[in-house]
Amino acid sequence: MAERIIPLADHRLLNAAPAVPTSLETPTGLLSDALARPLQDLRISVTDRCNFRCVYCMPKDVFDKDYAFLPHSSLLSFEEITRVAKIFVAHGVRKIRLTGGEPLLRKNVEKLIAMLGDLRTPDGESLDLTLTTNASLLARKARALKDAGLRRVTVSLDALDETTFRRMNDVDFPVADVLAGIDAAHKAGLGPIKINMVVKGGMNDQEILPMARHFKGSPFILRFIEYMDVGASNGWRMDEVVPSSEVVRRINAEMPLEEIEPNYTGETAERWRYKDGGGEIGLISSVTRAFCQDCSRARLSTEGKLYTCLFATAGHDLRALLRAGRSDEEISTAVAHLWRARSDRYSELRTANTEGLQRPVKKVEMSYIGG
Ligand code: SAM
Ligand code: SF4
Ligand code: SF4
């Protein structure tokens, strides 16, 4: 039986403004947390809304017409997001991913991309600016996104079979429109494009092979994501997780694979390539092979709360500092203190003790914190 559903509104109250230390610091670009992990990656949720109701993320019975999404006044403005991003870049962030909810639903998101595109790292480099999308609006927006300075996109697609995909997105959205979005992004030069497939056992695992066959030899990198116990409303059960090892086993039986080296330390996906030269796939095994030890990601929620882990139960209210007239130096120092104190490693602890782990009751929903 699915576990009890806890509305998100409860969780959003669990946030406090971080303390601002009196002794202010100049960022060095070399911030490290309590487990010696640098701060390199910032994921920004630009909206908590979505036009899909993926069963593993925003199940319809929770995210229904009565659901209290954030009011517009709660959202960080583009100026506020850019100000926070600039502070993070000074601390060492080199990669920014816009997410949500569905980020392309945020009005004029291209304008935000252009503002973030103007930021430079301490050594003068531009950022690796990317976005994760369900692609429903991508065919229409790909060109404008590229022109605004977006480097690449990751597209979520859970099945090629029409019935299965519609059951997963739960709003009857057709596969063909996602494929058209991927094609438009490719033509606009938003590559290399990664395709994310969340595998939920008994729901879409029969699509592993058709998806692998479809994207083999294409310019797109298909990545299989283990269904995670994120949030509090998807009724997650361990027996619905299809381990990455099983995904590899099934594909390898038909299309032989070999494992290859990661591109960089901290890469979330394990990489495998087809022995016949048909390209590569990725496996994101956050349940069976946690990658907390290299996790260099911070998350900024739609309303400006900083989360140091996807499975956090509480965030740090940076918006309160922004709107209280705190200076960049003050906010930067507060962020430095928060990151230095960070010791999150939820997935590792879960892997070590999957059955016995006391799951926090009020984990934040992915659509709010940003996937
Ligand atoms: N709406 C956009 C999309 O779907 O691409 C961006 C936000 S979505 C929360 C980001 C990513 O998180 C997607 O690739 C989605 O499939 C993944 N995701 C959401 N819930 C998940 C879960 N319970 N387990 C694993 N991945 C999940
Ligand atoms: Fe929307 Fe993305 Fe969540 Fe699906 S995974 S409901 S598209 S935010
Ligand atoms: Fe990073 Fe938390 Fe995920 Fe571990 S569980 S990889 S610390 S976000």
From TrEMBL:
Record function comment: Catalyzes the cyclization of GTP to (8S)-3',8-cyclo-7,8-dihydroguanosine 5'-triphosphate.
Binding site for [4Fe-4S] cluster 1: C50, C54, C57
Sites where the protein binds [4Fe-4S] cluster 2: C292, C295, C309
Catalysed reaction equations from the record: GTP + AH2 + S-adenosyl-L-methionine = (8S)-3',8-cyclo-7,8-dihydroguanosine 5'-triphosphate + 5'-deoxyadenosine + L-methionine + A + H(+)
Stored SMART domains: Elp3
Binding-site list for GTP: R43, R97, T132, K194, R297, A298, R299
Transmembrane segments: none
EC number: 4.1.99.22
Keyword Glycoprotein included in the entry's annotation: no
Xref: InterPro entries: Aldolase_TIM, Elp3/MiaA/NifB-like_rSAM, MoaA, MoaA-like, MoaA_NifB_PqqE_Fe-S-bd_CS, MoaA_twitch, MoCo_biosynth_MoaA/MoaC, rSAM
Domain Radical SAM core, first and last residues per copy: 34-267
Protein name (database record): GTP 3',8-cyclase
Binding site for S-adenosyl-L-methionine: Y56, G101, S156, M228
Cofactor(s) it depends on: [4Fe-4S] cluster
